[in-house]
Amino acid sequence: MKNLKYYPFERNRYFYGKLLTADDFQAEQQYMNNKRRMGNRFLHGCGVVCGLNVEKADGESVALESGVALDFAGREIVVDQPVKKRLASIEGYDEEKAAAGLLYLCIEYTEENRNPVRDASGTGTEYGKIGETFRLYLTDREPEGCVPGNGLCYEEKKTVFWQDGVRVSQILPRYVRRGDELTLTVDVENISQKQPIRFTYELELEGLSCGNKTVLEVSFDENLYERKRHYEIPYTLTAKGSQDRRGRVRLRPGSIKTGWRSASSGSRTEGSEDNCPAAAGMDVPMAGRNIGTVDIVDGDIGRTLRADFHNGAMEDMIRDTYRQSIYLAAIRLTRSGTAAVIEEVEQVPFGQYVDSGMMFSLMNRVLDWRVDRLEQQVKPLIQEKKEEASCPEEDGRQAQPPKAASGTVVFDLESGCVAGRRFFSDEIVHGLGPGKVRVMLGEEYESEGDDYILYGAGDIFDDESGPLRARLAARVDIARGTLVIGVKLREPVFGGQLRVHWLALQDENEDENAQEEEPRLFLRPDTAYLNPGESCYFEPVTYGMSDSRVRFAAKGGGTADAAGRYTAPEIPGVYEVEAESAAYPGLKASAFVVVREPEDR
Predict the structure, then answer these.
(1) Cα separation of 539 and 588, whole Å?
(2) Does the bond joining 525 to the residue before it have cis omega, within 30 degrees of 0?
(3) What is the pTM of this model?
(4) Which of 188, 277, 293, 319 is packed most tightly, with the most Cβ within 10 A?
(5) Rounded distance, CA 166 to CA 194, Å?
(6) Which of the residue ranges 88-92, 464-468, 591-595 would you say has the lowest mean pLDDT?
(7) Domains of the chain from N-terminus onward
(8) Average pLDDT over residues 462-470
(9) Is 490 helix (H, G, I), strand (E, B) or coil?
(10) Which residues pair with 501 in a beta bridge?
């Protein structure tokens, strides 16, 4: 099946007396193979499914474990037995390429004729079987175009220049909300350069800014870092609040300046892309070319990413099937006399993996464990802050019972909803009038024929058919006397309904005594769980204060604006958000943010 087209689909129609030829049986095989390949490509993707680890066997050889991969056309690549090969015996090996210090080991699908037999005439030879096998080869070139991997839809990586065993690339997110910050990461690889390296270049920013500047100067001096092969230098950019729908990063012509000792000639290299000869091995983008693009969106990034993925034309997904390979390893070499010796092997350098449903399930369990661990770290801090808050003394007056209202909201869940999907109810008039109310939410579910309503954490009860793994929240509009209920899924669902019962309570004594109480200040929520770079709002809750204005500050990491919007840093951990009363200096309240570790890519 060397053909790379999936369609049009056409299958045999059988009837008694039909004459079957070799073409009919070949069409039968082609129909079934094309159906399977198209399902592989569109439902699972392409890359390593399992196994296929590459290890250094000795200084001159590598060992490939058995495993399975799907190629760019959805064909299965199966290595059923471990393979050990000398690097010099692998197709594509070249001494000049090896001297540069980096080679990629690739694998691709291929077929071979087997079982030769005499043809019907008895004078020729035909082959009775076709063997589906694989081809290994070495190259010094990166994949062309987009590389389907876990980060393909989220970030973009492009090479700025590659010279004398030094490669400089840039990583830029594909999406950013208007007005938000994003991180441009400069990725520096010192592949084979023995001397300390340094370079500078300038980037022209369109639709983006660094501070208030539209030109970013990137500089690197290896003498200022602990010596290693790989460095990542982050730069913080901001998506402008203009009407630009796309931010672009362009390399300013003539701005690349480098300085190090050439590995090939032994002479010191001082120059730019304008005066470095091609023989020096410098690969520089065309002057003024885009080396980074980010879509600036106004809505939710997750929804935009999902819509772009599903709305992509089928032709765009399959147009690069020809001669695309799976990059199994990056092999770094060093010189030993006149020979190239394997120093290090990096697995699947471009993230070409196929993640199965089992893998997603395992990662969700790991993520839950990480969240539980962070919760245990933050609980003592929350308790300490609560103990610091003073409680008002009872004044002896008869307390009035709180008013109550309740209701039920039914959410229709679409088939195929992924984890993280959000649903919101319409605005609900709770009937208690304007003012502060407290809301309790419970999820209705059925287990072993009995109906239950769950309030709180669902993982405490060991019901086999327990509640949906979802987070519930309610937002109350104090002035309008309304509320909105939101649901965030913690696991994929396949349709159905979610019934949420709500109970709203209003305590009249709270409003009557508000001015008589000692001033108190709290933040809601007291704990928030975010991914790196995500944002949420903290609401100040005041008692006994006629002026409820506060000033927000982020401690330990992240940023907080005047409206209480906190943006998490890129580093996981536990951070504090502090609010200080504008009318009562020294009156402060704190909340904590647990920034989760991102899932492995």
Answers:
(1) 13
(2) yes
(3) 0.55
(4) 188
(5) 10
(6) 464-468
(7) 1-142+320-354 (2.60.520), 155-317 (2.60.40.10), 363-391+399-595 (2.60.40.1080)
(8) 66
(9) coil
(10) 408, 442
The amino acid at 577:
V
Q: Which tokens in the block code for residue 452?
A: 């239950």
The 10s digit of each residue's pLDDT in 359-371 is 777 777 777 776 7
How buried is residue 586: exposed, middle or buried, by Cβ count under 10 Å (0-12/13-18/19+)?
A: exposed
Mean pLDDT of 104-113: 91
| Cα dist from 241 to 193, 246, 296, whole Å | 42, 12, 9
Closest CA to 269 of 167, 160, 159, 164: 164
What tokens were used for 204?
């022209």
With beta carbons less than 8 A apart as the criterion, state whether 559 and 534 touch: no
| Residue whose entry in the numeric block shows the structure tokens 């086999």 | 464
Q: How far apart are CA 130 and CA 111, in angstroms?
A: 7
Neighbours of 132 (CB within 10 A): 14
Contact between residue 115 and residue 127 where contact means Cβ atoms under 8 Å apart: yes
Q: Distances from the Cα of 424 to the Cαs of 417, 475, 503, 531, in angstroms?
A: 14, 10, 17, 21
Distance CA 109, CA 4 (A): 12
Short-list 290, 294, 296, CA closest to 203: 290
Tokens standing for residue 71: 């190629």
pLDDT of 283 reads 42
**In the block, residue with structure tokens 């696991």:** 491
Give the 3-state secondary structure percentages of the chain, helix then strand then coil, rounded to 5: 15, 45, 40
pLDDT by residue (tens digit) across 145-182?
555 544 455 777 888 887 777 888 888 888 888 888 88
Pairing of strands 102-118, 67-70: unpaired
